């Protein structure tokens, strides 16, 4: 045992952790909450549900209000009014929205107690690595405005029952 001549008590300093590691989702500021979004826009892809089997399929069709170049919502403040199926995510409804969120979604990851991926903008400072890692829908999506009938949507199914 070392002979102590002076003692410094070492404790883990929670304040040195980034906010997403020491702040519960329901205690984050609005700015912190918004910054968790990596901008992938995967939750803006249109999903279809089979009425009989309840199977949910994701299409490569993006909401008409998504800026396809920047992957940003062009009506963010009015989104739930203009698009009734667009849900405003809150700490209280995350679990109910898992079917709309990819497994990479930070809200889902933090809710499940997991780490943010290394490409997340909060770790890299920008969206470049997220884009390069193929997380965003930039290279797979087209605007829903290209379709003429609801049946046409079936041609754009890319995955079913991802959760
Ligand atoms: S899936 Fe999650 S991280 Fe991606 S845009 Fe939607 S809310 Fe943001
Ligand atoms: S309204 Fe905006 S946030 Fe909602 S699905 Fe459309 S583009 Fe995405």
Q: Runs with pLDDT <50, length 5+?
A: none
Strand content: 5-15%
* Amino-to-carboxy terminus distance: 53 Å
The biggest beta sheet is recorded as: 4 strands, mixed
Class based on secondary structure composition and strand pairing = alpha+beta
Q: Give the H and E element order.
A: HHEEEEHHHHEE
The mean pLDDT is 91
In this entry the ligands are: iron/sulfur cluster
**DSSP E strands, number:** 6
> How big is the Rg?
20 Å
Number of helices: 6
The number of distinct structural domains comes to 1
What is this entry, summarized?
With 163 residues, this protein is an alpha+beta fold. 18% of the residues lie in helices and 13% in strands. A hairpin with a 4-residue loop joins strand 3 (66-67) and strand 4 (72-73).
Structural description of this entry:
- The protein is of the alpha+beta class.
- The chain has one domain.
- The chain is 18% helix and 13% strand.
- The protein has six helices and six strands.
- Strand 3 and strand 4 (72-73) form a beta hairpin.
- The relative contact order is 0.20.
- The model has no long low-confidence stretch (mean pLDDT 91).
- One iron/sulfur cluster (SF4) is lined by residues 37-43, 101-102, 105-107.
């Amino acid at each position: 045992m070392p002979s102590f001549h002076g003692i410094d008590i070492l404790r883990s300093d929670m304040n040195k952790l980034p906010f997403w590691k020491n702040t519960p989702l329901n205690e984050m500021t609005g700015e912190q909450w918004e910054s968790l979004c990596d901008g992938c826009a995967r939750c803006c892809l249109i999903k279809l549900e089979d009425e009989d089997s309840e199977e949910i399929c994701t299409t490569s069709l993006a909401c008409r209000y998504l800026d396809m170049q920047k992957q940003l919502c062009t009506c963010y403040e009015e989104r739930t009014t203009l698009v009734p199926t667009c849900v405003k995510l809150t700490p209280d409804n995350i679990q109910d929205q898992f079917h709309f969120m990819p497994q990479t979604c930070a809200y889902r990851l933090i809710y499940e107690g997991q780490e943010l991926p290394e490409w997340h903008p909060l770790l890299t400072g920008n969206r470049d690595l997220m884009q390069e890692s193929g997380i965003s829908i930039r290279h797979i999506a087209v605007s829903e405005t290209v379709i003429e009938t609801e049946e046409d949507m079936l041609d754009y199914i890319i995955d079913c029952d991802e959760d």
